[in-house]
């Protein structure tokens, strides 16, 4: 910095300071000048800072450290136009620095900047004010402040500015703002769509690019889509797409197109104008990967809109073009193509087209010789070479994480309702890849794989193939997933695979019952519902049912069914299926055993359970100390070291532990006929149960005894007597009455109604409990029994000799048996006798049959 002395000949004024030209090489000196009161000095200082800041981000950081931001933020509101303009130039360039942005946000300069966007301001002010806002609008809180200060309206007005830099900066700021839904709606309301469309004809590519990117965000709003169509937006986009010089704009133009074709109504007029061929050209013609990606997304969006659109796409042979995209390098194109196939494949004709692109096979199909095909079936698969399906199956093993779930999603659509496509997936060796993908941790991979396998498993031959690849074991991880969609799909697959007895055994052996029962606690309705249905299907096997009961499934289902909001037909079905597998719990919880509920050794009556009370097992009850409450009545006509099992079951035992489980299972009792739910495996289970009924049973000696289930020799003798004397009777009525008299004799004989208080049955049970030193009393040891003892004995004896009856528990120690007796109608002698429900009197007049709902029957039930 130096001084120039004026010549002595010039006149000097006492009031005016001589001009002082300054040359400074230090930024700090210039920053100090920002506090000068002289407008000329301020203007030159701002201009110097602008030039210095343009040289790089390091200079901007240096100016920030010297304190230049605060005075510049004040000078943008200076009265002098030149000072104000130069201050905006300096601040606009400096705002590109991240630290400067944070400080400007703290200084709250946005209102001042927006205030200078008025039309009367200098163009340079507009340029650098919008540049500053474009830099600040990246920050969310700054975007909110710009919107609150109504900055969007002046920014839209500046899009019509003759200066391209003002247009570019304004567009960039608007693009940042419309990332939020509220700003998109505001752009539509402020009539910004026509202005944006007009900018597509700009001579500057960056402005065109920003206009398309902004339109892509704005047209996500339905109202903006309507305005876009009214302003002939499709014609403007087709101009861009048909111009090969605008190849860098085609991707964004296709994106805007896909947004505005969401309703499907616009496709037909575009097709009539020849625009559909223009759009699909980007799918079939090699182009930049981003353009092909957007083209595939456009096809996906159009196909999702309506069946009519899918039909139009099929008429354009879109299937072959999409399959060609699967061979393009880059995961983005592959993912978009798979998703487009998933959408187009909803059309039945397209399903066939994707399968038939490869033609017919000339040799035997893999399904005929595949090692996983069940040996017991003669089913064969059609001889197709699955061209499109095979390509998708190969993508299941792709290294790209996003490609695998996308390919599975496409296969899910193609196999949905198409047996031929499901066969094609198996033929292309897709089962192994899909089962492996069940353990894929990439989001959505396991869910989509499970969905495909669910479609395939509807066929018995494919279900066996899937199970042979260890699908049940692979489902353990999906069943433990935290993702709701994965849980829904996994439980659906369990339900279908469990239709086979092999599948139910695989799930149990793999430890899958525990996570399945745990899903009953889910707060998501679909997960809980699917888990209930899977449990009801798995409960067709008694081993599964008992293990699920031990895992607390009955308690959870009972809790669900007590809830008005959570209860459903699925939870009620699952609860009933589990109860049918354990009649002791069923009787305790429901107080009823139906005609087809057949008791067996190991059945016990723990008494009526209160709501929410857990029913203990017989083993747990036997370990309790002797108490004065009601004793537990146990049924067992076999010594504790033997048990009846089916020969088929005995052949399946692989270890003593398995033998023990099966023996306990067979003693629990089961329903005579399976519950008729929606399971596809019901027919198979019913057939298997009918076949097992005719097989001989044998005694198997167990490695460990069951001291908690005492052998009841007296009951065994009653069974033999009933078999010998009652079973030969020809008339059902005679059998009912004779059995009632046998029960009465065993339980102390008849008791008159007015002498019931003298019948010492309670004392007798107390003596038995003390004699046995146990709360568990064998039913045959009871020689003085009241209503519920006699009704229970009648039921278990009737089940042993094949006499059909039910057991119902009432109040105040009452219980009774119901039987069906065919009764003719005298007034219509030619009519077939109809079965009528009768109660069996076991205590007052043993053998008497009381017509249900008559005064005598009601008296027997209550008095």
TrEMBL record:
Biased composition (Basic and acidic residues): 638-653, 681-697
Biased composition (Polar residues): 654-676
ARM repeat boundaries on the chain: 387-415
A Pfam family annotated for this UniProt entry: Arm
All residue ranges annotated as the EDR1/CTR1/ARMC3-like peptidase-like domain in the record: 712-849
Region of interest called Disordered, as start-end residue ranges on this chain: 638-697
InterPro entries according to UniProt: ARM-like, ARM-type_fold, Armadillo, Armadillo-Ser/Thr_Kinase, EDR1/CTR1/ARMC3-like_pept-like
SMART domains listed in its UniProt record: ARM
Name of the molecule in the record: EDR1/CTR1/ARMC3-like peptidase-like domain-containing protein
Superkingdom of origin: Eukaryota
Keywords: Repeat
């Amino acid at each position: 910095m130096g001084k120039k002395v004026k010549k002595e000949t010039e006149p000097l004024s006492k009031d005016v300071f001589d001009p002082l030209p300054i040359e400074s090489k230090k930024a700090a000196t210039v920053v100090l000048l920002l506090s000068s009161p002289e407008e000329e000095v301020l203007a030159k200082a701002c201009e110097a800072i602008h030039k210095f800041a343009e040289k790089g981000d390091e200079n901007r950081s240096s100016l920030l450290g010297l304190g230049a931001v605060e005075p510049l933020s004040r000078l943008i509101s200076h009265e002098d136009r030149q000072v104000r303009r130069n201050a905006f130039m300096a601040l606009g360039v400096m705002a590109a620095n991240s630290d400067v942005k944070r400080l400007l946000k703290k200084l709250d300069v946005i209102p001042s900047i927006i205030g200078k966007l008025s039309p009367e301001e200098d163009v340079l002010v507009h340029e650098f004010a919008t540049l500053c806002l474009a830099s600040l609008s990246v920050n969310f809180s700054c975007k909110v402040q710009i919107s609150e200060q109504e900055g969007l309206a002046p920014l839209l007005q500046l899009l019509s500015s003759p200066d391209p830099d003002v247009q570019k900066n304004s567009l960039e700021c608007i693009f940042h703002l419309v990332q939020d839904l509220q700003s998109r709606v505001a752009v539509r309301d402020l009539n910004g769509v026509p202005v944006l469309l007009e900018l597509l004809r700009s001579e500057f590519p960056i402005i065109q690019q920003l206009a398309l990117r902004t339109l892509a965000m704005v047209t996500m709003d339905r109202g903006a889509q309507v305005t876009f169509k009214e302003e002939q937006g499709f014609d403007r986009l087709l101009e861009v797409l048909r111009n090969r010089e605008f190849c860098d704009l085609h991707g964004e133009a296709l994106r805007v197109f896909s947004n505005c074709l969401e309703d499907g109504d616009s496709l037909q007029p575009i097709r009539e104008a020849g625009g559909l061929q223009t759009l699909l050209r980007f799918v079939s013609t090699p182009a930049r990967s981003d353009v092909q990606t957007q083209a595939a997304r456009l096809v996906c969006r159009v196909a999702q809109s309506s069946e009519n659109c899918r039909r139009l796409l099929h008429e354009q042979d879109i299937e072959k073009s999409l399959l060609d995209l699967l061979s393009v390098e880059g995961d983005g194109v592959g993912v978009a193509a798979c998703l487009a196939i998933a959408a187009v494949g909803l059309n039945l004709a397209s399903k066939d087209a994707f399968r038939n692109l490869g033609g017919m096979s000339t040799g035997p199909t893999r399904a005929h010789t595949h090692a996983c095909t069940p040996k017991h079936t003669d089913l064969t698969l059609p001889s197709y070479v699955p061209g499109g399906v095979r390509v998708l199956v190969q993508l299941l093993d792709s290294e790209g994480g996003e490609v695998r779930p996308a390919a599975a999603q496409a296969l899910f659509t193609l196999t949905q309702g198409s047996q031929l496509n499901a066969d094609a997936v198996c033929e292309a060796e897709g089962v192994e890849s899909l089962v492996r993908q069940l353990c894929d941790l990439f989001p959505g991979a396991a869910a989509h794989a499970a969905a495909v396998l669910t479609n395939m498993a509807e066929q018995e031959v494919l279900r066996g193939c899937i199970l042979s690849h260890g699908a049940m074991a692979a489902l353990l991880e999906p069943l433990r997933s935290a993702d709701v969609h994965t849980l829904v799909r996994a439980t659906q697959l369990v339900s279908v695979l469990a239709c086979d007895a092999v599948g139910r055994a695989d799930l149990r052996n793999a430890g899958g019952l525990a996570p399945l029962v745990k899903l009953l606690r889910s707060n998501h309705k679909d997960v809980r519902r699917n888990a209930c249905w899977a449990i009801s299907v798995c409960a067709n096997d008694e081993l599964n049912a008992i293990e699920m009961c031990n895992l607390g499934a009955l308690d959870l289902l009972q809790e669900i069914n007590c809830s008005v909001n959570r209860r459903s037909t699925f939870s009620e079905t699952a609860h009933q299926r589990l109860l049918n597998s354990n009649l002791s719990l069923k009787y305790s919880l429901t107080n009823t055993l139906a005609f087809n509920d057949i008791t067996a050794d190991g059945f016990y009556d723990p008494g009526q359970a209160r709501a929410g009370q857990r029913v203990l097992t017989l083993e747990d009850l036997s370990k309790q100390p002797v108490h004065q409450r009601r004793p537990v009545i146990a049924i067992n006509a076999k010594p504790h070291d033997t048990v009846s099992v089916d020969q088929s079951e005995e052949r399946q035992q692989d270890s003593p532990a398995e033998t023990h489980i099966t023996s306990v299972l067979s003693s629990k009792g089961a329903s005579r006929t399976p519950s008729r739910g929606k399971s596809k495996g019901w027919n198979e289970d019913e057939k298997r149960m009918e076949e097992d009924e005719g097989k001989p049973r044998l005694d198997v000696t167990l490695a460990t005894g069951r001291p908690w289930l005492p052998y009841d020799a007296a009951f065994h003798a009653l069974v033999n007597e009933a078999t010998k004397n009652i079973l030969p009777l020809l008339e059902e009525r005679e059998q009912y009455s004779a059995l009632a008299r046998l029960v009465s004799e065993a339980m102390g004989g008849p008791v008159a109604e007015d002498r019931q208080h003298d019948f010492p049955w309670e004392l007798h049970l107390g003596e038995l409990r003390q004699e046995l030193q146990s709360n568990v009393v064998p039913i045959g040891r009871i020689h003085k029994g009241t209503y519920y003892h006699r009704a229970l004995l009648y039921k278990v004896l009737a089940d042993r000799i094949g006499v059909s009856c039910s057991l119902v528990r009432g109040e105040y120690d009452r219980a009774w048996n119901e039987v069906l007796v065919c009764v003719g109608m005298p007034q219509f002698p030619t009519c077939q006798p109809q079965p009528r429900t009768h109660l069996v009197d076991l205590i007052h007049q043993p053998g008497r049959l009381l017509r249900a709902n008559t005064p005598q029957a009601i008296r027997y039930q209550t008095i």
